[in-house]
Structure formats: C-alpha cells, structure tokens
Amino acid sequence: AIPPVSKTKSSFYRRLLVAHLIDSGINTVPAIMLDTGMPRRTAQDTITALHELDIQCVFQGANKGGGYQIIDWGAINKKWLRVNMAQIRTVLGYVA
Question: What pLDDT is stored for residue 96 in this prediction?
C-alpha cells in the first residue's frame, strides 16, 4: 500500500502535475479534467494557485479556443518533473 501523503505534499504535487500538463499541451480545464479525473473546481483552483509556487501561467486566446500557457517556471526544475511524473501521478492517484 502507498503510505498516506500530507496535504502539503499532495497540493504541491497536484500543482506540479497541472503545470506539467499545461506545458505539454493539455492546457484547458476540460482537458485537465479528462486526463486526471479531477473535478472542474479542483482543476480551476489548482491553476489559480500556480502563482504561489512562482509558476507564471496565463490564458492565451479566445475563451472558447484558448488555453493556458506556462510563461515562467520559477524555481521548479522541469527536468526533475519529467523524470518523476509517473511517481507524482501515482501518489495523487491520477495514473494515466
């Protein structure tokens, strides 16, 4: 069994996962919901909270055809994130 994860860690991992998805082209709330099974509100709140990690995320384009884009990753190491993505998904229960 996977040991329980603190709320702090799961929140951090969820933000990293959503930022990674956005950067990979899964950059709308419906697409994130489809990929992860996250409720709409969780996906929206997670995107809104990215700035707390100094990840700059903006919405580009028209409301219907647009999507989110990561402008700056701040202190987050994208290479570490890519290497550890499977573990992050497993910890969160969002196995693709």
Answer: 63
In angstroms, the CA 35 to CA 25 distance is 11
- pLDDT tens track for 51-81: 999 999 999 998 888 999 999 999 999 999 9
Closest CA to 55 of 74, 37, 77: 74
Query: Residue 68 — φ and ψ, nearest 5°?
Result: -80, 155
CA pair distance 83, 45, nearest whole angstrom: 25
Other C-beta atoms within 10 Å of 52: how many?
10
Q: How far apart are the first and last CA of the chain?
A: 19
**Strand bridging mode 56-60 / 67-72:** antiparallel
Model pLDDT, residue 4: 81
**Is the pLDDT confidence value at 21 over 70?**
yes
Ramachandran quadrant class, 32 (left: phi over 0; alpha: psi -120 to 50; beta: rest): alpha
